[in-house]
Hints:
This protein is of the alpha/beta class. The protein folds into five domains: 84 residues, no CATH class; 88 residues, CATH 2.40.50.140; 120 residues, Rossmann fold; 150 residues; 41 residues, no CATH class. Helix content is 51%, strand content 18%. The chain is built from 13 helices and 16 strands. Helix 5 packs parallel to helix 10. The longest helix has 130 residues.
Amino acid sequence: MSNTYLVVPYSEKDRVKALGARWDTGARQWYVPAGLEISIFRDWLPAADDRAQNSMDLTPAYGSQAIGQPRGVSLSQLLAGVSKAVADSFDQGVWTRAEVLRVQARDGNVYLELSERDSEGRVLAKAPAAIWARTAGRILPDFERATGAHLAAGIKLLVLAKPVFRAQFGFSLEVTGVDPSYTVGDLEAQKRRIRERLQGEGLFDRNKRLPAPWDFTSVLVVSPEAAAGLGDFAKEAGRLQEAGVCAFTYVHSRFQGPGAVSEILAALREATDAAGAEAFDAVIIIRGGGPVNDLAWLNDYALAKFVCACRVPVLTGIGHERDSTLLDEVAHKSFDTPSKVIAGIEAHIAGRVRQAGEAFDRVLAESLRVIEKVRMRTGKLDSEVRESARNTVDVARRTSERDVGDLRVEAMRQLHEASMANRELIREVQVSARQHVRQARQQTPAAMSSVRELAMARVRAVRSLVESGFPALLAQVNGAVHRGSQEFRHVTRVLMERAEQAIARAQAGTRSLMREIASQGPEKTLSRGFAIVSTLDGKTVTSAGATGRTGDVKVRFGDGTVPMTVKQSNPREKINGGE
């Protein structure tokens, strides 16, 4: 005898349970076990007639019903038939491919909304599904361990689903199994398609081929605002920034869910367009760890292409160890966690500091070596200069002594010649002065005589005119006499002035020559360190040969005369004497 299933609202389940009804887990429906009176469950029977609920003849002919009976079948009967038909058709589960639209967990049960889409994203089918608590506790931990993912919107599943139709709740699927290999394969297939596309475009390893930053001085960081690990990263980065070593610019975006990729790209483009990509030494993309399907949002072609084409190295710290995203594959360098990213930057900076220190030590050592070499060379050059200077001074001293000797001899010669020339000049001046005086004396009487004769001639002419009776001539004669007298006096004065000027010039020249002669006299020469050699009888000795082989001479200095005896030796006598 088959069980009689009941239609029990959730609020009345305790009542039917108290009456003895039982719960069919597979059918998800209350039923009356064999041996119980069905009539006590009449309020929950699918039909008023207990016998009708077991009948499969749901479509009686019109008019065949008894008089007084309602026409047709009740909705509960119809749906009960559908439920039985579905249960009979799908007594076992069917492996079904589907994409999760929504997930909700309640009281240990997991309620899903599954769908199928075409290549353009249009929904082809949609159905609710449930994984009951007892089943979920058995299959979901294995699924999460195998895939590293958890059930969430967007993940694709291969589920063992049993169709179920209930009169009160309609159609649904009961999931009793999940194949993790399908989900892993789908995620990997998606990554493989994007990878192959980037490789075909020649972009896949473009960012990896960029030279590593020589040093980190300015870095752009992109992460979720409350990402796990961001605090540790920012703490270490803040230390570097406070020390003035490296500046960090932070931008935030969602990293999972629909539209996350667009937000990430917008944040990256806005930051790089504002400052220029070349303003940063590197771009860092970090987020905390998470299940594979959360990370799968980063396996996006547009985002991976942006990283490939970025003009500066991109470093990733997605916060996972077992699996990697496409961003890890195309980035210049990837790290397991955000903390390892900042540790790598610190290590790089520390390495540059060590290199700078070593370079400084090498430069210092080389500088000291060059300084020592220059010091030794300078010392050598100083010694050479000092030796050269001493030699030059010695040569100059010997040359000066020779030149002084020559100068003394030349001075004596010039002094003698000047003395002779002065005497001659004095005689010439005296003779010239006497000649000028004689000429002046000779010219004066002649001029006086000429004036007198002119005056007498004019007087005679005047007298002749007067005698001839020309009275007017008297005044002319007087004027002429007066003018003649004036001319006489003028000529006399001019001649006297010229004579006096000639005598004054002669006297001035004579005095000048006398002063020059006096300044070139022996006393002046002797006062400058020279000496005059003369014989005992007063004759000046002007050469070494004039002293004879042996003789007594007097040497006159500026402050007195000293007698000396000159001895000369024959070089040949020294040779013959064996000296």
